[in-house]
Amino acid sequence: MFEILPPLFYRGDMFAMREFLAASVTSVFFALTIDDGSRWFHGYCDLGDRQSPDRMRAEIITRESRPVRAMNRQEKLDHIWSATGPDFRGYADGRFPADLRNRQIVLVYPSAQGKIWKLLDDLTDEEIAAKLPVQFRLLPETIAA
């Protein structure tokens, strides 16, 4: 990454790229020690807010310091959304009430009904488990602070 332009700033365990993604948003790279090991992370920060890189670092440390392989409900839903193919996910349309339109939907297969489109946020714990890869199905739930 150093072969593009010099970093915008170096600050202890982080540096920011000089090339901006949009407006004042750019890539920030972190070298953090977590659980006695060196780890490297990347995030996008809005440098218009001077505290943005510090908040990103704190969030990374909080997330990566959790019990190994724990996911909260929102992380599970985000994983399902990103791992689901375009033919099996979409956005609520005219089949849904007006106040629910444009929200994320996925195909589910309840045993009695065949296949139906359901709001991602309305998936039950069983439906979430069925849509997660096997290695993620029995992960403990993390508790939001």
Tell me about this structure:
There is one protein chain. This protein is α+β, with helices and mostly antiparallel strands. The protein has two domains: 9-64; 73-132, no CATH class. The chain has three helices and seven strands; from the N terminus they run ββββααβββα. The strands form two sheets. A four-stranded antiparallel beta sheet has the order 1-2-3-4, covered by helices on one side. β3 (25-34) and β4 (37-46) form a beta hairpin. The longest helix has 13 residues, at 52-64. It is elongated. The mean pLDDT is 85.
Brief account:
The protein is an alpha+beta fold and 145 residues long.
Walk me through the topology.
Layout: E1 9-11, E2 14-22, E3 25-34, E4 37-46, H1 52-64, H2 73-83, E5 89-91, E6 104-108, E7 116-119, H3 125-131
Antiparallel strand pairs: 1-2, 2-3, 3-4, 5-6, 6-7
Radius of gyration: 20 Å
Q: What is the percentage of strand-forming residues?
A: 25-35%
Shape designation: elongated
Number of helices: 3
Strand order of the largest sheet: 1-2-3-4
Q: Could you name the key traits of this structure?
A:
145 residues, alpha+beta, three-stranded antiparallel sheet
